[in-house]
Amino acid sequence: RGCPSAIWPARLARMTSAFLLDGSATLAAAANEVWVDQKATQSTKYNALWKDGPGLVPTSDAAVADCFRVEVLEGSSVWVGMTDEAHLGQGWKTKALEYGGNLSDGGGLMRSSFGPSLKAGMSVDMRTELLPEGGDKFSLSMHLAHDGNGLGEAFNLKSLDATIMGALFPLIAFSSGPAKARISRVTPCPPASAFARPGASPRKSVVGKWAVAASALVDEPPPPDMLSQVVFNVHDEPWSISAHVANNLRASLDPGPPHAVAGGVMATMMMPPPPLQALEKTVSEIIGSITSVELKSDSAEGELHIAHAHGTLTLRPHMTTHTPVSRDQVSWL
To answer: Residue 14: what pLDDT?
Structure first.
């Protein structure tokens, strides 16, 4: 396909590619496409390293960077990242710096919900830069964008050397199937600033995460270090609303406006600690009696108004902050 995103004025260079596969029998590749024909099990993962040249290696006097785009052509549960050949292994033996919605080191979870999970029709742009630190040491910085929208810096690893990490190549991995993806090098490589997360903008839908201070819900809120705000998440696949206090609370919504509640509240069954009990009771009552969920777009970022049996609750967009994964968090470094 190849539809350049708004932040990528660069052209996509056509290159002769060579995938190094992890030996899984159902994994196959041709040109710059790789695919798996069968569904993976929980204990299975398929990995392919795109060795299109000498790889990304540090220099002693200047920063070097490579940029790639991966397009998901079929399926879901696709991961992209960077690693060296020494850390490519069959299944979960591969160790890499990976993104598939969450951030992973190839086996362990590093950051949850860093961006959307990857499925057919989506693309990821990936920029990896190596910067000299003096002597044999260098640092690694990886920035990501999803469908042209910057996700920011995902990994920032310092004090690396060639004994820890060799020449780096792009990795495509599948934890489900059938699935297929295509990779291309992007040149010239855009600057890291092109991958910055966008600032707050007015919401165009009720779908998404919305926050309200705990003090707006109960007269005696819990200590701020325990829970300072409650985040409500409105989903459209299927239509529902959820929140977390001590337990996860969820209820179905009518698909059409005004999105009234369409069933009882489902909840996990943990006993809340005393400071959270009144707050959780209130949140459960609100979710269970919703009569409408409405977007108010006349404020700078938009507001969500939830009408319920006891009044109307006003929520603001929930903005998640993300910090990059550091070296001490990656188990194999």
So the answer is: 33
